[in-house]
Amino acid sequence: MAMLSVSDLAVSYGAIKAVKGISFDIDEGEIVTLIGANGAGKSTTLNTIAGLIKPDSGSIKFSGEELVGIKPHKIVARGLALCPEGRRVFTHMTVSENLDMGGYTRTDAENKETLELVYEHFPRLKERMNQVAGTLSGGEQQMLAMGRALMSRPKLLMLDEPSMGLAPILVDEIFEIIQALNKNGTTILLVEQNANMALKVAARGYVLETGKIVKTGTGAELLVDDDVRKAYLGG
Ligand code: ATP
To answer: Where is the ABC transporter domain (predicted)?
Structure first.
């Protein structure tokens, strides 16, 4: 059984149909990527899985249980966390206060242990634990957003555009961390406009165009696919 199974999912904003009946799945231990141009429906898909948007129709099963209709905090408690696009850290709070917020579904004792794990993956956050998040660099804020999502000890971590706006060297660093998290047992659903990097680390990928999945394959297959190269990899 797939860890996450999305079937015939349709989502709209008023009259705008953003996601038009998509189906995909993720097995435990995989990195799966959704790639696509601006407005293809990638963020809408992640936000719907996280329970932030109610779909028009379709089903989202996580470990066999339906998520549609479940409140976002309950979805987090079941082991599914979202690191949103644009990071959305609490700018007036310190690094460690932001991380505490991520652990709100868990006990203090659990959070103490998880915090050590997060600081192992992100030593830079440990150095800056008392710094106000709004003064962190873009890359550090991305690390904080990821660390905050990890505080809920997700089985499945959804990352929305983690490389957005980062200098190439930081993009490399973020992708290394994504791979390390996966090696440590976290299944990952990765939404990226940096299709090249995403397909290199992903076991499988799905290509989303105007709300529909138009292609799927292994990361390696999609990297050499002519259509994908033309549309998303610069020829
Ligand atoms: P990007 O990479 O630019 O974030 P995306 O693939 O994540 O794109 P979505 O953000 O999911 O795409 O948007 C899908 C479609 O839904 C777009 O046409 C967008 O304009 C529309 N949309 C997204 N959010 C809203 C909203 N709150 N109200 C109305 N339309 C929306």
So the answer is: 4-235
Residue type, 59: S
For the record, the structure tokens of 172 come out as 């490399």
Return mean pLDDT, the chain.
94
Closest CA to 27 of 7, 6, 5, 48: 5
Residue 47 Cα to ligand 1 midpoint, Å, equals: 11
The pLDDT value given to residue 193: 86
Ligand 1 pocket member 205 (CB < 6 A) = no
Sequence-ordered list of residues with C-beta below 8 angstroms from that of 130, at least 6 positions apart, any chain: 94, 95, 96
Place of tokens 């996450």: 4
Distance 172 CA to ligand 1 centre (A): 26
Cα–Cα distance for residue pair 98/148, rounded to 1 Å: 6
Confidence at residue 37, expressed as pLDDT on a 0 to 100 scale: 87
Dihedral sign, CA of 26, 30, 36, 42? positive
**ipTM of the prediction:** 0.92
Q: What is the pTM of this model?
A: 0.93
Sheet holding 57-62, edge to edge: 16-26, 4-13, 57-62, 65-66
86 C-beta closer than 6 A to ligand 1? no
